[in-house]
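Hey team,

Filing this mostly as a record. A colleague (T.K.) asked me to run one chain through the structure pipeline before their review meeting, and I want the input and output archived in the tracker in case anyone asks later how it was produced. No errors, nothing strange. Just documentation.

Input sequence:
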Amino acid sequence: AVTGKNFVLFGGDNGRLISHSLTDDTVYDTCELSTSTSPLGKIRAGITYDSKTDAYYTTTNNGYLYQVKMNSDGTFGAIKPTALFSSSAPFANCTSTPTICNGRIYVCSYDAITGSRLNVIDSSSMQLIYAATLPDCPDIKSSPLVSAGESDGKVLVYFTQNEIPGGISYIEDTTTAKE
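Output structure:
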């Protein structure tokens, strides 16, 4: 992720998030996201910036979404995780890059109890608003595509399935929807 700031953020399979200078060969800071959520999660998603919260968002494949605040010098500030799975799930997965619209984060995940989920999370509080579950749907690894052109504030959130024969699904959401 690159914004108007003097650093670039990227992550990898080691679960580390790196803040690097845009112009020099300088690493400003590193952070292992999974230290607060163990077990170790790999970062297999992109990083999304939200100007409303002035925060960056990414996921790890152990089923967590992270809000990352940055200091002006490119070092990491507060980091807040949110689980993308039911509390009783023995297994979770997430490789979806978060999409943000109207203060809501849309991100796909999978857990062994409820199956595939499209999670809708408040971008400020990082609290789950609701999860649209699809028990018979294969693991969703895609990043949601949000169409926000409706005049009534409604958005359509599209996502694809990661198994033959595949498919595309969507939900309708509004800024006040709770389910």
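Quick notes for T.K.: The mean pLDDT is 89. The first strand starts at residue 7 and ends at 11.
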